[in-house]
Every structure is written in structure tokens, then in C-alpha cells.
Amino acid sequence: MTELESGAPPLAADKDERALLVLARGDESERERALQGLHALYKDEVFAFSKKLVRDPALAEDVLQESFLSLYASFDRYDPERPFRPWLFQIVRNAAFGALRARRKNEKLAAGAEAKEPSREGVLPGVSALEMIERTQAALDRLPEETRALLLQRHGLGMNLAQVAESFSVTERTVRNRLRTAADQFARALFSKVPEEGEAP
Amino acid sequence: MSSDCSEIASLVASRSLGVLDEGERDALERHLGDCASCGSLAPAFEKSLSLGAERAPADSWEKIRSGLASLSTKREEDDAPLVRLSCTYCHGELVRSSAVYCAACLAPCHEPCFFEHGRCAAPGCSETRIVRACVPAPLVPAMPRVDRPSRAKRLAPILVIGLGLGSAALVAELIRSMEVASQADRDRLEAELTARAERDLKKKLADLLEAGRAKLAKGDLDGALDDFTQALGLDPRNALTLASRGETYRRKGMVDEALDDLVRATALDASSAAAWLSLGSARQDRQDYEGSIEASTRAIELDPTLVAAWIRRGAARALRGDPAAQNDLTRAIQLDPTDATAWSHRAYITFFTGDPQNAQDDAEKALELDPGNALARVVRALFAQKRGDFDGAERLCSMAIELDPRLYPAWFVRASARQAKKDLDGAIADYSRLIELRPSVSHLWIHRALVRREKGDSPSAIADLTRALALMAKTTTDARALLEKDRLAAAIKALERGDPVETPLKKDDDLKGLIEIEPAPGPGRDRQH
């Protein structure tokens, strides 16, 4: 059964985010309808963002589910005078970080578990375009999670500086500084050689 | 890729992220033109960050829905009342998941109720912070509420204005707005009421200020004071109203109150020439000539065309024996050669500090411009007194008093003329009137004491001298002032012992006492207040 077949009025089809957020302050059934509408509006974007951030489709699915449950639980705390999307992705980001933390804990417990190793060589002259994409992706994967989330929100989600600042609860100037630092980190990761196991970094 | 490609990679990423500085853009473009590898980096970086056309799994809503069901079951378990709670504010039933607690006394409350009230509703507690029960909750960022003040805080200004203006309609509408159920309607009504309250307040303030200024110009000082005080009750930080009330206090002789208001007014709005001018006058009343010159100079800097400020500074400089006093008064005349007040002031100051012939010419010019100019008649009286024509001096001063009953020098010159004629009761009456008008001028008390001593009324003379000493204690502490205090204290002791008393006034004190009580600002100089 799709969400539009579930019997609820087709609020999602209206894509009226404001109306949904008004409903989110109503009783339990209205809140569920609001959540359903917001899910329809944002599910693909949340899933794509999560998948890119956690780099695991199954885990991204869990993050999607956890994000919308957290959103439902925190409707009361939503301030209608502030933009919704940056707040939603703050929730999604936290859900993703929580999922990654839980996975790392499990991996430590699981003996012999090995993470996929990125390329062990730095960028060399004369790489092909395809190879450049692989190496760029590998460099991005080696960045801290917070930094990757920042880059994804800015470029992947196309948020402007004000929206990113709202989502991270910082000023625009701080966002700008963090983005410059992230660019430096990316460049260093791109040109650094990943140490072999047992080799001193 | 060359060795500086590492730095270029950072710039490429910065450009894609929209945080590249203008200065760096040229360097980047130059490098990309030469380096093919770096040229392919930007598309690779952007593709790596692109979310693509990912679709969420089709059954994601079903999973979330089943998650909601288990969340609901868990909440019901959480909300099962172990101890029945009720809200301290509305006394309604409380469940754990919606309860917040006062950070100081832990009184339970609905969160909306707490913010509606603005603080803890428990008797005797005024805490404004809350804590929540320690229950496991999903990791969700709290939305800051700082941008939206509590309802009580939002409505309080409207209520204050409504009550301050005595507007029953405004208060009634405010109460009605609180009964509106919809949040959007409440917000709209609140915005309308706020705008209306501000409009009403502005109009009321403007009316009060205008009425006060009209009364001040007519000399109804008590009426003006009432209006300005009422206006300040509505807006205590209005610099113009404060300056106007300060000037009114000053004209009533309440120099301490005047200084309080005027210092605050100039602190709130340092660009008001009128406030600085009044402050200069009040400081001169306090015999703080340096302060008076400083404030008058500020007024002149802010409005070089303010004739009254030039006159004020000229008078203060004259009191300090500064020859630049004449220049200030001349400047005042240059600014407005038809202003009889400026001419008569220069005549008055010139009589004491310059060429008497010039003083006479200035006085005649003032009378030519304005036959009703009282101060010019006082200058004529001074010349008569100088010739020994005390009857003529008394007659001219009486005419001046008739023209302007608040003209202090007229009372002073008549008092000294009467004293010279041995009309001691008449002189005491004139000095008493002067003291009534300017109670903070110490030399007036000394002059009356001297007349009373001449009349043989030593106790009253001692009382006057003691008051003069107390007033001097409030003024400057420079060497000259201390010397004056010593002379005054010695005179009091001699009077108490019944010994002959030397006059505590030095030769030039007559002049000082006279200029200190220079004329009150005329109507032409009231335009700023």
C-alpha cells in the first residue's frame, strides 16, 4: 500500500509544507497526517543525503526511518517562525551520526571486521577523469563525518549559507570559515598517501 | 599536476562551495588554464558531492508508521501516572512527557503555561528557567526560542501603554485578543494592538510635549512641569522631554533636579544643542563656570547659529574674567543683528568688563530695536546708579520689573539702589524676591545678610550667611572658593560674638553677584525647548 492509498487525505500531493506544519501542532491523528505529508515531500532527499553520508544503503534506510520518528517526537519543539528544512536536516544529521556511532561500536565488537580501504596512493600526475572521480570520492570519504555532512548540505542539498548556518546553529561567518577549512582538508586528503597497515602515518 | 596543485585543489573545492574570495579567483583561473589534471578536479568534486536521483525505498512510510505505533505504546507507558501531577499555573492534569519543572523549586507545569506566565507560577518563586524530567528521548536538537518572547512579555508593553494612556478601549481589546483561539489570529491581533499602542503613545507624547512647551513659554512653570513629568512617565528615555523638564526645573530655581534631567538628556541624545545649552545654564546657576563654558561650547558646535548659546558662553567667560566673552556676544549680534536680546546682553556685560560708552551705545541700540527691552533699561539704571542718581535707578528698575517680572538684575540693581537710599526694608524685600527666584545663588544670601546686619537683625543675618556657606560647600573647591568660604565663616563668627564685621564680599563680588543673576532666557531663545 502506498502512502496515498492509506486512506489519509492527499496532503502530500499539495506539497503545502506550511499547512503540514500547522497540522503538526494538532492532535495525534493530525500529527500523523502531517508526518506522512512531510515524508512524501522530503523522503527522497533525506534518503539520498543519508546514503551519501553513511555510505551504506541499508544503514541509510534506518537513518531515514529514525529521522522521521525523531521529527514526529519533536513536533512540539518546532518554532514555526524558523525555516523547516535546515531543522529537518539537523535531525537527519544527528540520526546519521547516531547510526554511524552504533555501527562502529558493533564493528569493534565483531572480530576481523575490516572496513573497505580507500586507495593507498596520493593523486599522481596524469590521472584519467574516471580515476579522478574515484580518488576525489576516496578523499571525501576520509574526511570527518561532520565535515562531510557540512559539504553535503552546502553542495548536495544546495542550501545557502544562511540555511546551513541555521541547521548547524552557528553564524554564516562560521559556516564560511568551516567550509574553507573543509576545502583545505579535502585538498590534503586528495594529495596525501594513505598509510599501509603497520606503517607510521 | 604540479607541486602547487595541492593548494589549487583547496581553491577548486572552495569555488564549488561558493566561498572563494575574489582575489583568489584570478590565481585559480590562471592555474586551471595551464593544468589539465586540476581542470578535471572541479567536476569530480561536484559529482562526488552530488546526491543524484536517489529514491527512498517504497515501503519506508509503512516502516515509519509501525515505528509510530511502538512509540505511542512507549509514551503511554511513560505517561502512566505514578504520582498524579497538576500544572502549577492552570491546575490542569499533567503527564510526564509534557511536564516541565521550575529550575529553582521544581514545581511542575505545562511548558506552554510556563512560557505564557513568563516565570514559575509557584507562590514566592520567580524563576524563569525550566528543567525537564530525565526520560530517554531521541536525539533531537532543541529549537531555540529566543526569537519569540513569552506571551506575557509580548503583551506587557501594550498593557503598560494602555494603562498609562488611560485607554480603556486598548486594554479591553487586549483582553479580548487573549481569548482568540487561533495562534495566527492572536499574532495578527497582537501586531495590530502593538502598532496602535505605539501610535497612541506617540501622539500623546507629542501633545504633552507641545502643551508643556507652550506653558513654559508663557511662564506657567508648574503647568509645564506637570506635562513634562506626565510625558516622562510614558517614555522615561525621551531626551527632548527630559531636556524640557530640566529647563523648567532650572527656571524654577531647582538646580539639582535640573542638572539630573539635563545630564541624562545629554547622555541619551548628545546631538541636542538645546539640551547642552540648558545644561550650560544650570551649571552656571551652580557657579560651575568651567562646566557651563564646556556645555555651551558643545551647543555651539552642534548649532553654531544658536544665539542663546553664544550669549551663555559669553556670560560664563565674563564671570571668569576671560576677554573672549566680548567676542562671543559680538558673534551673537552678528548672527542676528535685529535681536535686541543679544545687544542688551552685550551692553550688560560690557558695563562691567569693557568700555562703558560702548555699553551705553549697545543699550540704546537694544531699546531702538525693542522699546520694551527690560535689560537695556537695567543698563540705564546701572549708569544712573553710577552717577549717584539712586532715585532714577530705582525708577528705571521698577519699569524693567514691570516689563519682565523675572528679570533678576532689575531686582538686584533696585535692591542695591534702595540699600544706598537706606530704604532697608525695600532692599530686603527685593533680595528676598531674588532669593525666591534663584535660591541657589550664594551671593544673594550674603547681600541680604549685609542689609539685615545694617538693620541690626543679627540672628537673621547669621542665618543668611550660614545658608550662603552651605551653598558654597556644594560648589567648586578651587582656591578662590575656599578663600571665600573662609571669609564667610569668619564673618559668621564675628556676628555671633557681636564684633564689628567686615563685609565678606570683596570689591569685585558685587559685579560677580550681579552677572551671576543675569537675565532668564527670553522667548526668542526658547525655540529649542
Key descriptive features of the protein:
heterodimer; A: 201 residues; mainly alpha; globular; B: 529 residues; three-stranded antiparallel β-sheet; two-stranded antiparallel ribbon; 3% strand; disordered C terminus
Short characterization:
Chain A has 201 residues and is mostly helical. In chain A, 67% of the residues lie in helices and 0% in strands.
Fold and architecture overview:
The complex is a heterodimer of chains A (about 200) and B (about 525). Chain A has about 200 residues and is an all-alpha fold. Chain A has nine helices and no strands. Chain A is globular. The N and C termini of chain A lie far apart (about 55 Å). Residues about 1-15, about 115-125 and about 195-200 of chain A have low confidence and may be disordered. By secondary structure, chain B is an all-alpha fold. In chain B, a hairpin with a 6-residue loop joins strand 1 and strand 2. The radius of gyration of chain B is 38 Å and the shape is elongated. Classes of the chains: A mainly alpha (about 200), B mainly alpha (about 525). Chains A and B meet through helix 3, helix 4, helix 5, helix 6 and helix 7 of A and helix 1, helix 4 and helix 5 of B.
Q: Determine the mean pLDDT of chain A.
A: 76
Radius of gyration of chain B: 38 Å
Give the oligomeric state: heterodimer
Helix- and strand-based class of chain B? Answer: mainly alpha
Uncertain stretches of 5 or more adjacent residues of chain B? 136-146, 476-480, 506-529
Q: Structural class, from secondary structure content of chain A?
A: mainly alpha
Low-confidence stretches of chain A: 1-15, 113-124, 195-201
Question: In terms of topology, how is this protein built?
Answer:
The complex is a heterodimer of chains A (201) and B (529).
Chain A: H1 11-14, H2 17-23, H3 28-54, H4 57-73, H5 84-109, H6 129-141, H7 145-156, H8 161-168, H9 172-191
Helix pairs in contact in A: 2-3, 3-4, 3-5, 3-7, 4-5, 5-8, 6-9, 8-9
Chain B: H1 5-17, H2 22-34, H3 36-39, H4 41-49, H5 60-79, E1 85-86, E2 93-94, E3 99-102, E4 108-110, H6 111-117, E5 130-132, H7 151-165, H8 168-178, H9 183-218, H10 221-234, H11 239-251, H12 255-268, H13 273-285, H14 289-302, H15 307-319, H16 324-335, H17 340-353, H18 356-369, H19 374-386, H20 390-403, H21 408-420, H22 424-437, H23 442-455, H24 458-474, H25 479-497, H26 509-516
